[in-house]
UniProtKB/TrEMBL annotation:
First-listed, main subcellular location of the protein, grouped into a coarse class: membrane
Membrane topology of the entry: Lipid-anchor
Native source species: Paraburkholderia saeva
Location(s), subcellular: Membrane
Xref: SUPFAM superfamilies: Periplasmic binding protein-like II (SSF53850)
UniProt name for this protein: Lipoprotein
InterPro entries: Lipoprotein_NlpA (IPR004872)
Length: 277
């Protein structure tokens, strides 16, 4: 054995090669179990989106990354939780909503990847056509500055109101220049609009919340907006120091590329969504 050790010592670079080989084995083990024992906390708003997230979480678990998903019942708490470091990333808001939240809440957040784009629509359990709305009918739209504006733009597309030329999703009821049916426009929290359909004549609606509430067929909107505007894609949002967090990047990659996740999304939303990545 001493002869063998002596012979090995005389082979140029052999010990170095052994050290590199050992390092390679260590790296290989690290690649397989690099997330072992680590956890990631994701915040989202309650919606059928949760099922696809759970599918991705199960796949992440199989790859050594433990993921906890926290559901919030409103659209304000997920950003507060992210700012307070109660969660690592949230997934529920599009860019216009995020920019407004940053302005109002003073948040320093970064959107690092897109998710799905969800349709919104105008729903009614009282009429089948817009022209059947009576004078003074009650219409519910979202009460936040961004989604409320999106609802007003949809009402304009339906021919029910006219807005000041050039206004965008930041439109408010003060921008209405013509309201021929004298619609009474009320503003409710977006997540509650689905439950208002029995009490109003027409409501801005989100298919995901309508499906969750079971108040009507999510596909039955009198008018939908399109899926072509990626500005409305839901975003993965983090604090600046987490932009390159490998746990978050790993989970997003799983979510975006998993066939099982796409199957869950198709089952939940059918043709009411599109992917933005």
């Amino acid at each position: 054995m001493r002869f063998l050790a002596s012979a090995i010592d005389r082979i140029p670079g052999f010990k170095r090669a052994l050290r590199i080989g050992a390092l390679g084995v260590a790296l290989a083990v690290s690649t397989v179990s690099g997330f072992a024992g680590e956890s990631l906390t994701i915040g989202t708003a309650t919606s059928p989106q949760i099922e696809a997230l759970k599918v991705a979480a199960r796949e992440a678990k199989e790859q050594g990354l433990d993921v906890k998903i926290i559901e919030f019942t409103d659209w304000n708490t997920p950003n507060a939780a992210l700012a307070n470091k109660d969660i690592d990333v949230n997934y529920f808001q599009h860019i216009p909503f995020l920019e407004n939240a940053k302005k109002q809440g003073g948040y320093n957040f970064v959107a690092i990847a897109p998710g799905t784009i969800m349709k919104i629509g105008l729903y009614s359990k009282k009429v089948k056509r817009f022209k059947d709305l009576k004078d003074g009918a009650t219409v519910a739209i979202a009460n936040d500055p961004v989604n409320g504006g999106r609802g007003l733009l949809l009402l304009q597309r339906a021919g029910l109101i006219k807005l000041k030329p050039g206004v965008d999703f930041r439109a408010t009821t003060l921008d209405i220049t013509d309201n021929p049916k004298h619609l009474k426009i009320i503003q409710l929290e977006a997540s509650q609009l689905a439950r208002s359909l029995d009490d109003v004549d027409l409501a801005q609606g989100y298919p995901s919340f309508i499906k969750l509430a079971g108040t009507t067929d999510p596909n039955s909107a009198l008018l939908f907006d399109g899926l072509e505007n990626k500005n409305y894609a839901i975003q993965w949002v983090v604090r600046p120091e987490s932009v390159n967090d490998p746990r978050i990047r790993k989970f997003i990659a799983i979510y975006q590329h998993s066939p099982a996740v796409r199957t869950a999304l198709d089952k939940a939303f059918g043709t009411l969504y599109a992917v933005a990545w």
